[in-house]
Design brief:
Layout lengths: L1 H34 L7 H4 L12 H8 L4 H32 L6 H9 L6 H11 L28 E6 L3 H22 L3 H19 L13 E5 L2 H25 L3 H9 L4 H12 L1 H16 L3 H7 L9 H10 L4 H32 L1
Antiparallel strand pairs: 1-2
Length: 371
């Protein structure tokens, strides 16, 4: 009987599995193959019905990270890093603050909750259009001081070319090695705490090796024969504000649900032990919200890595100071017809998203198996 049930379940799932294999993994495989060819290098072959493609291996990826003319892609990666960082900090911080305020049993809570959550219901293209008008240099936010008799602001929100926090692209391997060393150090600490001494020792050795390699400037790895400065483009400030405005209501809803799930007995016990209200949140409430914070970071990080329509609507496709890899992928593929380069950027984006999603899914599935 159980075998029949499994067979029926498999047959019911089979159409979905076939479609998934073709239209998701099949297209991913096709994109990966295209990224290893020279499709688009010859303009006469780019749009041919049967283009003559040559296998070039990882050449397209080499050009993206170390090529002379692909400096824009490298700046796009830096833009994505800073956008993700400030987007996560702003969205999580504002969402948590709003949730704590609403958790104080304020009057008209339902009205405020609806107002805060409403931006999340909008499409990014709508949000981008509204905020593009609000942040235009000659209107919107810049002319608000005139309402109280003050001079108008002269902030070039989306058009400034000012760049801060610059660093040399050649130092990226050292940063990555240092980050990996921190990750292995954390893994060693976790393994030691659970009694797995051998694993902790292996992770400790890797930590020391990577830290030493990073401290000495990652000898043996040279990306470019010359310094190439990159930094945070100030034009992204307006885009970060718009993105935080739209997604903070979502994190507010997550945190509010988590706050309502914290037993009141735990808070009262902490107050009886002499904890202030700040101490109650710091030592009792916030640690219990850790899983919600992790889930929100994964979802928001996934959104930020693929951000496209908000930037398109706010700054346009040709504003290099607010460019991101997804936008450059579109320009290379469908304007320049350099399909192999566009496919390579798409695979890089896929790997970046996988680095965020896969560890979270792995830990979640392991937790379900243990339960």
């Amino acid at each position: 009987m159980r075998t029949n049930d499994r067979l029926v379940a498999f047959l019911m799932l089979l159409p979905s599995l076939v479609l998934l294999a073709i239209f998701v993994y099949g297209f991913i495989g096709r994109t990966a193959w295209v990224s290893l060819t020279n499709w688009g290098a010859d303009a006469t072959q780019a749009l041919a019905l049967n283009p003559e493609l040559a296998f070039v291996g990882l050449e397209n990826y080499r050009k993206l990270f170390t090529g002379l003319i692909d400096v824009r892609f490298r700046q796009d990666l830096v833009n994505t890093f800073f956008f993700t960082l400030f987007f996560l900090l702003g969205t999580l911080g504002l969402g948590l603050g709003l949730a704590i305020l609403l958790d104080q049993k304020v009057r008209f809570e339902a009205v405020f909750r609806t107002i805060f959550l409403f931006p999340f219901a909008l499409a990014f293209i709508v949000t981008g259009t509204v905020w593009r008008w609000m942040l235009q240099p000659s209107g919107g936010v810049n002319v608000l001081p005139e309402l109280v008799g003050l001079p108008a602001l002269e902030i070039r929100w989306l058009t400034t070319r000012e760049q801060i926090w610059q660093f040399d692209w050649n130092t990226v391997p050292a940063f990555l090695a240092a980050g990996a060393a921190l990750a292995f150090a954390y893994a060693a600490w976790r393994a030691w705490g659970t009694g797995r001494r051998v694993r902790a020792g292996v992770h400790g050795i890797l930590t020391l090796g990577l830290a030493g390699w990073a401290a000495t400037g990652t000898p043996g790895v040279t990306l470019l024969p010359y310094p190439e400065p990159h930094g945070f483009n100030v034009a992204f400030v307006g885009i970060v504000i718009a993105a935080v405005w739209q997604l903070s209501g979502y994190t507010m809803a997550l945190y509010l649900a988590g706050l309502r799930g914290v037993p009141e007995e735990l808070r009262e016990a902490a107050r009886v032990d002499g904890a202030s209200e700040f101490g109650v949140y710091r030592h009792v409430v916030l640690p219990l919200l850790g899983p919600i914070t992790l889930s929100a970071m994964i979802i928001l990080g996934h959104i930020s890595l693929k951000i496209f329509d908000l930037i398109w609507a706010m700054a346009g496709a040709d504003n290099a100071t607010t460019d991101v890899p997804a936008l450059l992928m579109y320009l290379r593929s469908f304007r320049a017809n350099r399909f192999a380069e566009g496919a390579a950027i798409a695979i890089v984006l896929l790997l970046m998203v996988a680095l965020v999603i896969v560890p979270y899914l792995r830990s979640s599935l392991k937790g379900e198996v243990r339960r």
